[in-house]
Design a protein that fits this description.
It is built from three helices and eleven strands; from the N terminus they run H-H-E-E-E-E-E-E-E-E-E-E-E-H. It has helices at 3-18, 21-24, 161-191, and strands spanning 36-38, 41-45, 48-50, 53-56, 63-67, 73-76, 81-86, 91-96, 100-105, 113-118, 130-134.
């Protein structure tokens, strides 16, 4: 086999091995790992709840969820949460009347999840012990609702750019590999 052919095959194989890493980084979830904290505020930053696990004193009146990201999120949970889109800068509060562990997630971004540990964490963690209310800013004005309470607002979400680049790159790479293999096969036929 000619040195150029070996180099071309090696370059193709290395590119195939490196390319799947691009789309794998797409999607949701906090890729930086689990964070822990205590207090009464959970921030939504990029595709992460920060802290991922929040320890809440059982005497706290409420927990505030604030969207500090430039994209919409929501907070879905078992019998509680804020299922509408929460635009950038908006927030809501939830009161937890019983100790327990209350898991939650963003249904828009797969893998974006977290949990509240209220009190000692021992308890049912049932949504029946949660009251959710819209956030009221310091000026006393609540944000306008994004849609009727009975009808969720569905937004078109474009496919992430990294996934589109991965698909386009994979197509181009596949085409180049096919042309290279066809050229090699044609050369072998001429020489035999």
């Amino acid at each position: 086999m000619a040195p150029r052919a070996r180099i071309a095959i090696a370059a193709t194989i290395l590119t195939w091995l490196a390319l799947p890493a691009v789309p794998a980084a797409a999607g949701g979830g906090c890729h930086l790992g689990v964070t822990q904290g205590s207090g009464t505020t959970v921030e939504m930053v990029d595709a992460c709840f920060t802290p991922t696990v929040l320890y809440v004193d059982h005497m706290a009146k409420f927990v505030t969820f604030v969207n500090r990201s430039d994209m919409a999120h929501n907070v879905t949970a078992n019998q509680w949460g804020y299922f509408e889109d929460i635009p950038a800068g908006d927030a809501f509060r939830a009161s937890f009347d019983a100790p327990g562990i209350y898991p939650f997630a963003c249904s828009i971004h797969p893998g974006m999840s977290g949990a509240l540990v209220v009190g000692n964490g021992k308890g049912a963690g049932s949504g029946e012990a949660v009251t959710v209310e819209p956030f009221v800013a310091a000026d006393g004005v609540a944000p306008a609702p994004t849609g009727p309470a009975t009808e969720p607002v569905l937004a078109e979400r474009p496919e992430p750019a990294s996934a589109a680049i991965g698909w386009a790159g994979g197509g181009i790479l596949g085409l180049a590999a096919g042309i290279g293999l066809a050229t090699q096969a044609g050369r072998r036929r001429r020489h035999t």
